[in-house]
Amino acid sequence: MSTPAIPVAPPAALPPVAQRFWRYVQIDTTSDPGADATPSTERQKVLGQLLVDELEAMGATDPAMDDHGYVYATLSATTRTPGPVLALLAHLDTSPDAPGAGVTPVLHPAYDGSAVPLPGDLSVVLDPERQPALRDHVGHDLITSDGTTLLGSDDKAGVAVLMQLAAELVADPSLPCPTVRLCFTVDEEIGRGVDKLDLERLGADVAYTLDGSGRDTLYTETFNAAEATVTVEGVAVHPGYAKDVMVNAARIVSRLVAQLPPDEAPETTAGREGYFHPHTTAEGTAQQASVRILLRDFTDEGMARRKAFLRHLVDTLRTQHPRATIDLAIEDQYRNMGHYIQASDPRVISLAHEAADSIGIDLTESIIRGGTDGARLSEMGLPTPNVFNGGHDYHSCFEWNTVQNLTHALRYTQALVATWAYRSRTP
Ligand SMILES: [Zn+2]
């Protein structure tokens, strides 16, 4: 595999973690939901191979990329008592929602709080009115794309932090370190991030993904998620002879959708509020129509209530339209990872707070109104909350991170590793 092109050299004054970030974002790793293979795009392997080469050069143990593009490496323990094996994960791919080829990183030193037009497309403006988090970063050195692409901080910030962490731990065996398994995954952005992840090869007891936006946040919960499909078979006849004969499937499906509470929709809820989201109707006819509805709720009781509500609606429609056949199928998709974390090893949360305390930061626990790789790993038995990596406004040309946030995420991750090294010895 040839060495990837890094057209824009990192400014020499940047700290090493930001230099890595600067180089990695210039390698196109856009994933492709239309491709069946893993990885969905071969270009993800270009970055994967670069990481393997760099891990080898720094002296990490057994860095390797498998056929699916997953990169594994080990940082050997420097503590004498073996504790739990800690996995740290970040994903190689970037979102297909915005262009990801030819990323040109741009440094905006000492941000002054004003709007920032990006030089490759002056109509793309970072604006604190729309992106209020910018206001908390006055004085930071912003990194953006030139406005024609996404930046790729999601999740090359995580990749850069983990690579710099590895370099420093390998270089200095006096630093406290449990056995750490690094893993760089593929296709996270298209929902397949752990499909081919070899959990046995990973061989970890606890894990964190470095894939969360912002600062000082630990994402510990996701929705409970299910999808309902309602299919209606009607009776279609010529409208001219339809009286008392026709049963219009399209009308019945519309009636169902109209009865979903409008104040329990993704567009009307936030925070811990759940919702019903009718997202796809098949081309409905009088003969047949169907609708697919996402159900989302943070609590088990709330999810049960949503399912019961939908069953009740369908039962009522069946009574009203006895000659229609109305089928309801509900499939569970994933479950709030908070549940699995509590059941398997809640220390992934308590030690994350201890790590924060050790460097004097206040770690806020937050929820994700969606799923993550960590949610699926937690469900598979590996408790995996999601740690902040400093970036903002992901999946868009407005994406940004800062040199200070990258340094901060690195410092926190170092504290996390040290905390596990010290504290994991006591059962
Ligand atoms: Zn991500």
Provide an overview of this structure.
With 427 residues, the protein is α+β, with helices and mostly antiparallel strands. The protein folds into two domains: 16-221 and 336-423, Aminopeptidase; 224-334, 2-Layer Sandwich (Alpha-Beta Plaits), CATH 3.30.70.360. The protein is 30% helix and 23% strand. The chain contains ten helices and 17 strands. The protein has helices at residues 16-24, 43-58, 153-171, 199-202, 249-258, 300-320, 337-344, 347-358, 373-379, 403-423; strands at 61-65, 71-75, 86-91, 106-108, 116-118, 121-126, 142-144, 180-185, 206-212, 217-222, 224-233, 275-281, 288-297, 325-334, 364-368, 386-388, 400-402. The protein has an eight-stranded mixed β-sheet with strand order 1-2-8-3-9-16-10-15. A four-stranded antiparallel β-sheet has the order 12-13-11-14. Strand 12 (275-281) and strand 13 (288-297) form a beta hairpin. Helix 1 (16-24) crosses helix 3, helix 2 runs parallel beside helix 3 (153-171) and helix 7 packs across helix 9. The longest helix has 21 residues, at 300-320. The chain is globular and about 85 Å long. The model has no long low-confidence stretch (mean pLDDT 95). The chain binds zinc ion. Zinc ion is lined by residues 91, 154-155, 188, 211.
